[in-house]
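@channel sequence for tomorrow's demo:
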Amino acid sequence: MAPDDGRLRIGSHPANTWISGETAVDISRGDPRAPRKVQVAAAPRDVVIDLNRSAIVVVDMQNDFCADDGHLGRGGLDCSGARRLIAPINRMLQAARPQQVPVLWLSWAVRPDRLDMNPSMPHIHAADPHDPLLRRKGGWGAFAGTRGAEIADGLDVDGRDIHVLKHRFSGFVDTQLDSILRNMGVTTLFFAGVATDICVLATLQDAVFLGYDAVMVTDCVTTSSPDFCVRAATYHVEELLGFTCASEALIEGMGRSPSSARDGGRGVG
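structure tokens (generated this afternoon):
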């Protein structure tokens, strides 16, 4: 992409580019986009975010964790709660894309030979140490390239979205996620998906440890764990790690974007 003055812009994203001219290369990597600050109702306090530096991360909303014939469904777990997230997640994503807020899908997908999965993973899903789910329920699910690793039916997936495969609870361990986010200049992450207290929380924690700002979207996450696990996860997010908000609050905030004619470009209330 070339600037108007004929210089060459080098890079895959506007937030992280060099500008090459005849006599010099500008490697300052300044983001040419003006900040688009909006205020979002959140807990424990409202947050002001820059839409240019924000992204939505949807965790493990795939067939193996959402469909009755997926890995968890075959294991006897009720997946209806995960499917109830589809409608609010879709509304949130449909509001985010016109505002150029990136959508990233994290999906659990291990190698067919399981060489990227350590022994603690099948063991923790075992009913007892002598009867692992790996054997008892017909094999470990979410293999890369299988239906179980595909985004669940009904979710609004767009060609502009970014997909990252993972093989740990945290989407940052041994994946491309951090590199992608930093290349896009993203600093604020909104989290949705399953499970609240496991993969969502693990990814959110690692995001904070890496320097990102984290917001958990409470009506877009769920878990099959007992309710006290949800209360604990929410408590730790609000007290130690970041913020929580409802999807409608984020949608309303994005609607007040400086690029929106509805608020005359005010953005922050």
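heads up for whoever presents: Confidence is low (pLDDT under 50) at residues 132-138, 260-269.
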